[in-house]
Structures are given as structure tokens and as C-alpha cells.
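Schema walk-through. Below, the input block comes first and the output block second. Nothing else is stored per chain. Lengths vary across the set, and this one has 423 residues.
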Amino acid sequence: MSPRDLLVGSFRAALGAADPLAIVPPHLPPPPRGRTVVVGAGKAAAAMAVAVESAWPAEAPLEGLVITRYGHGLPSRRIEVIEAGHPVPDAAGESAARNILARAQSLTANDLLLVLVSGGGSSLLSLPAEGISMADLKAVTRDLLASGAPIQDMNTIRKHLSAIQGGRLALASQARVLALVISDVTGDDPTHIASGPCSPDPTTYQDAIDILERFGVTPPAAIAMRLASGARGEIPETPKPGDAGFARTEARVIATAHQSLMAAAAFVQQRGIAPLVLGDSVTGEAREIAKPYAALARQIRAHHHPLRPPVALISGGEATVTLRGNGRGGRCSEFLLSLAIELQGMGEVWSLAADTDGIDGAESNAGALLGPDSLARAAAKGLDAKKLLAANDAYGFFDSLDDLVVTGPTRTNVNDFRIIVIR
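--- output ---
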């Protein structure tokens, strides 16, 4: 098997472990005495809805509405699929979120509210709180995305600007609530996934204010006023852990980055390569994360320690990119470009980094591939890797080499996937 086929095969194994069509049906409960309403949001929402439809008894009532990113929809029969804006929210998402909240409020104790939650749901399930406009929400979202703020911090702010997130969706219903969650955040805490529509929120308005200040984001006036009012106790906080309203709610995580990394590890091990899983919670600046990975690859290649090659270094998590230039490229391709610079063409080392949702940043690729000859091939084309990295143009680097990984929408999302193979 060629290095390229090995890398791509490991990525596909990771995706398979988070395929909604396989993982959702085993977690479905028996139909209730009353109605079953399915709602949800995220990049996996359409595939999760189709999985529910395929496994739900034909004679049992089933209805609902889920929101997914533009281009991520699927044909459905009983559950309506709406496409909306991501990563910046839009009016389509706002309208659908309002519909979802109304459906939840219509249910009784005999009914079931089945909530399908996955990464991307924070922007897709956008229903601004009273006094906040969609324009305000868009503005602060764009600034936070450019600031390099971790997703948990972004979601702390979103929950305090929302009428449906931060546990509010679950508490709006009198029905039993079961949330099936595909995790795209480090730690797999449901409160951070899609801004926790069915989970209590331990954060505060003051936390949100502190985050904005820490990352130098000046919010629109209406948002600043709301957060300040909340910090003074003039408007209610988000529902907190211990709230009795959550007694009828269960948030169940059914897919994680760890499961996908272990599937990739099994794939390479079956092909005679020793896997070393470095964790599913790697965070930080993508270009900085690459440096210790390169150092470890050099150690293994030169000294056969801590393992003798062939070895595959596998990891997940969610890196960030602080925009300094005007180039194209997401966190996975930026990680790879930085890794290429650190390795300086070292022989017998190949790598793939890709986002499991099929979209690296705002581009059409999931990620990219790196080989021992990548820097030399780029130099022959007149490309300066360091200048492209400074301009945040990793996409341009790998596109010129025809080394982008393009999957299209995977309709799942368990965060970044990285593998470095040392032969």
C-alpha cells in the first residue's frame, strides 16, 4: 500500500467510526405513548435524521425538523431538513430555530423530544435573545472566528446571547428529552457541543465579558448591554447544573474523536505499522502544534525511540488559526504547512491532516497530504513556504501541488484528524 493510500485509508476508517447511519439506530428508544418530535442542528443533522427514519417503526408517529449547513442536506421522508448558514449564522437558521423551539413547547409529558446534536449546531441553531439582532450575532461571530478563540469560549458567549441554547431547548418542553450527541469538542462535554441546547450551562455572563476582553473583541452595543445587564443580575442566567428541569433530560454522547482515532489506529496496525495515539484533545495554534510533532518524528526517525519505525502518530482535537494574512486555508492545512517547514524534507515521513466534517476552514477541501518531497516540489514552482504560512495561505501551497484532500460533505464531525507516518 502506498503512503498516500495508507493515509487516506486511515482517515476513511476514522470517518466510518462516526457515521450517523451506523451509530444512531442502536441508541433510539422505544416509541412513546404520544408523539415523537425530532429536532436538531449540526453538520451531521441530516444524516442523523435519515438514520432515525430508517430505524423508526413505520407505524409509530414521527415528525420533526433539523438544520444543517448549506450543501449538507439529504432527502428525507418524515423529518424536514433545512439548510442554513455556517460558521456565520443567517436568517434561515434563525427561522428554523424559532420553529424548533415552538415544536418543543407544544409537547406534553406523554411525548418524546428527540434532539440530534452535532458540531456546527452553534451557528445553525441561532435564535438571538431578546434585544439582540441577527446582524449583531453575525458581527460578533465573525470577530470571534478571526480572533483565534477556542470553541468552548465562543460557545460561552453564544449561550448568553441565545433564546434556545445553553439548556433552554430542553427546559422549554414538558416531554421526555433525549439528545443524541456527536462530539466535535475536546473533552466531549455536551454543554460545549452546539452550545448545549439540552445541557445545563456552568458559565456566566461575566465569563462571556471576560472572554471578549481577553481576545480583544469589541461587540455591538446591544450585545455589550445584554452581557452587562446579565452580569448585574438584571436578566436571568442560563440554566445551571442541578436545575430540576433537567430531570427528564438525557444528553448521550454517541460518537467521539477518541473512537475515530482508535479506528484509524486499528487500520494502520493491521497493515504492519505501530500506532501511537497522542490524544484526542490537542488544542492551540495550528502552526505551533506542528513543532513538537516534527520533533517527535525526528526522534523516531533518527533514534528509533520511543518506537521503532514504521510508526504512525495519530491525534485529534481542535486547533485554531489566528488570522494574520489574507490567504486561504484552514487549521489542518496550516498545521501541515508548518510541519513541512519544521521537517525540511526529512525522508520517509508522510502526513495527512483533515477535518472530519470535510471542510478545512472555509474552503472546499477537508485537508491536505504532505510527503518528503513537498517542499522541494513547491520550491520548483517558485513557492516560498514560510511566506505562504505567514499569509495563512496553506491552501494555496497544497493546491499548487495537487495534494488537497477533497471529500465533499461527510455529514459527520468529530473534529480534526492528524496522522504522521514514519517509515
